[in-house]
């Protein structure tokens, strides 16, 4: 790696600023105190693995800190960020992104050949906004970064070790975890979920939900999320009635009794809430009119200001009622990222400087209330606000909405796995047309093999074969949960949308195969799983060394055995026919 001297360019500030330059290995960084005539205090030290460095910068309160660095953009194949939306290299003049508790995570990785990280960075700020500029400089061919947030301290982790990018991102998440309070996630958070949203949308009643729950439990589902619609008898896609959070009088006249009946089936019960909203036709909109950030006319709702103690007291009381009054096992907390928007107004009683800090107080107060009532409470959040600041207040995080999109669900869940810390990672609910083939239903499930499956379809309308595919793959995911959901994850080739995903746990190894390419099998293993989600059925394994005699089972998308044999493998290659939607199991 070649050290670069700084060329003087920087994001314009229009303020007094003083800088220092420091080296981290072969990398030169400029650290600036924006708004200060005094230079920042800076220290750089090795951190853990060779090639990893931790920079600490300090300044006086009220001063903003910025760190800038560059690398030659040689061999770069992709740029990874938690936002998932693109893996293409952005230009340096692209709009900077902001990461905070309500939105994103301050981490990124420039990826090179063989998925090696050319440079992975993470900022040690879990709550307040961090501004991040990153991109290729067209004039020089370098890749540039700058990160900036308010002082008095900025901590920056830089990983130049050349390891697989997924390993470096997970290491950054482990670094964040060291500054977080310990969090025990209930085992139930990793168990499959049936969600009402795509199956019913708002047109649901307690009776509808109970019928679906009775069908879901025997298939292997252990959690039920009752989504938008339980709090209103309206059927239009509007948030005009959010904020009061009372059961719909016609659809859910006896919510505690309904929840008790569902729980008796063996399902945990979670209720949906849009925590920032007070809809225009709600009583809450009038009660909290002085404490809003913005009006969203297209959604017919106000966005509340979480810096207001009045707002926090109202929202905590209403959301905690799910557990305290109605007997639910937990909550689906939605739309937290809506807080991270330009504010048109503010509460006169705001008690902290940034909205992100207000969100932090809101979630902390809600968490304390929920845990007092149910220590093993389940709380789901979704992609878009999954950084370390969220970890103490959630048990699972879900991929953002991507209905019918297996490839997007695959990429989003894999990305979440790298940055979710201790939390269970959930797929966006899988849904499909009533005439979908069992094979393709299996492919949908294989696409989220390394996450907790959520499903949302009309179970009563499914054929026996459709249900068989669903039942089989839920059973596979249950049997190998530690390997698939907690094993060390390596999604390969981010530039191609992860055509192969690999997980390893002790002496077990699993692959999700989403394109017709060979699978490289390395290390010691006793169990090898290959889920073939590609239309090409010839699966080729390239072993690091000949595995010897293996016990081989191939199953189709329904779980029926296609091939079963003891096979001596004295070469480093093995090719097998595995049906699309099928599973190959090797043991030795």
Automatic annotation (TrEMBL):
Pfam family, one: Melibiase
Sorted UniProt keywords: Glycosidase, Hydrolase
Protein name in UniProt: Glycoside hydrolase family 36 protein
Coiled coil location: none
Annotated source species: Kitasatospora cinereorecta
Region (Disordered): 1-21
Molecular function terms, GO-annotated: hydrolase activity
InterPro entries from the UniProt entry: Aldolase_TIM, Alpha-glycosidase_related, GH, Glyco_hydro_27/36_CS, Glyco_hydro_36
PROSITE patterns with a match to the protein in the record: ALPHA_GALACTOSIDASE (PS00512)
């Amino acid at each position: 790696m070649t050290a670069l001297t700084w060329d003087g360019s920087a994001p314009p500030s229009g303020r007094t600023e003083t800088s220092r330059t420091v080296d981290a290995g072969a990398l030169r960084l400029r650290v600036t105190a924006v708004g200060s005539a005094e230079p920042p205090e800076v220290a750089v030290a090795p951190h853990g693995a060779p090639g990893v460095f931790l920079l600490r910068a300090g300044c006086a309160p009220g001063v903003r800190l910025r760190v800038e660095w560059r690398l030659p953009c040689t061999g770069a194949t992709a740029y990874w960020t938690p936002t998932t939306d693109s893996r293409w290299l952005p230009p340096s003049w692209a709009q900077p992104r902001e990461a905070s508790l309500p939105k994103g995570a301050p981490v990124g990785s420039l990826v090179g050949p063989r998925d090696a990280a050319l440079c992975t960075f993470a900022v040690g700020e879990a709550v307040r906004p961090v501004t991040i500029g990153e991109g290729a400089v067209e004039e020089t061919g370098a890749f540039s970064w700058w990160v900036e947030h308010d002082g008095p301290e900025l901590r920056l982790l830089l990983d130049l070790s050349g390891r697989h990018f997924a390993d470096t991102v997970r290491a950054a998440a482990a670094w964040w975890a060291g500054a977080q309070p310990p969090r025990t996630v209930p085992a139930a958070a990793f168990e499959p979920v049936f969600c009402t949203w795509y199956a019913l949308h708002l047109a649901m009643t307690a009776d509808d939900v109970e019928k679906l729950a009775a069908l879901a439990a025997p298939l292997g589902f252990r959690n039920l999320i009752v989504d938008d619609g339980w709090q209103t008898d309206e059927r239009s896609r509007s948030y005009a009635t959010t904020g009061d959070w009372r059961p719909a009088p016609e659809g859910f006249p006896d919510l505690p009794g309904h929840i008790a009946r569902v729980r008796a089936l063996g399902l945990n019960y979670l209720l949906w809430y849009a925590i920032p909203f007070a809809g225009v036709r709600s009583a809450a909109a009038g009660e909290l009119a002085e404490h809003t950030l913005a009006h969203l006319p297209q959604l017919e709702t106000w966005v509340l200001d979480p810096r207001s103690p009045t707002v926090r007291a109202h929202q905590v009381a209403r959301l905690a009622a799910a557990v305290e009054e109605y007997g639910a096992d937990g909550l689906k907390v939605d739309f937290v990222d809506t807080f991270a928007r330009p504010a048109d107004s503010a509460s006169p009683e705001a008690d902290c400087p940034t909205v992100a800090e207000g969100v932090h107080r809101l979630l902390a107060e809600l968490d304390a209330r929920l845990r007092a009532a149910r220590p093993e409470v389940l709380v789901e959040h979704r992609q878009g606000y999954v950084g370390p600041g969220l970890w103490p207040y959630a048990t699972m995080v879900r991929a953002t909405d991507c209905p019918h999109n297996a490839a997007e669900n695959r990429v989003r869940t894999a990305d979440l796995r790298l940055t979710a810390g201790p939390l269970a990672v959930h797929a966006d609910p899988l849904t499909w047309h009533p005439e979908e083939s069992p094979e393709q239903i299996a492919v949908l499930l294989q696409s989220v093999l390394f996450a907790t499956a959520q499903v949302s379809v009309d179970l009563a309308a499914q054929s026996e074969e459709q249900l068989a595919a669903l039942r089989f793959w839920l059973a596979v995911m249950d049997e190998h949960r530690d390997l698939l959901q907690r094993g060390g994850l390596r999604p390969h080739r981010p530039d191609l949308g992860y055509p192969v995903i690999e997980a390893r746990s002790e002496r077990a190894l699993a692959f999700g195969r989403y394109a017709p390419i060979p699978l490289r099998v390395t290390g010691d293993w006793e169990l090898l799983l290959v889920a073939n989600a590609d239309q090409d059925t010839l699966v080729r394994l390239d072993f690091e060394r000949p595995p010897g005699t293996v016990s081989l089972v191939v199953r189709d998308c329904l779980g029926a055995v296609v091939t079963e044999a003891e096979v001596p493998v004295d070469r480093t290659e093995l090719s097998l026919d595995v049906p699309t939607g099928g599973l190959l199991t090797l043991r030795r």
